[in-house]
Amino acid sequence: MSNTPSSEKEAILTFEDKKYDIKTLPKEVQELIKGMQVADAQLRMHEDTLKVLAVGRQHLIMQLKSKLETINPIN
User: One Pfam family name from the record (predicted)?
Assistant: First the structure.
């Protein structure tokens, strides 16, 4: 699903290779589209959060590795 407006006035929904004028769709369908847009935005936000957490975790691993270099393992 993609919402590809070509101008400020024209809002076109492309869904399964078909195009629809969003303004002419029933309110219920317009609300579903808005819900999908919110869900997409939330997914992007959480994906970005996961990326930040992964970078932080990698930094912690590097710090742990550095600290353990001077410690003898038990095996």
Answer: DUF6447
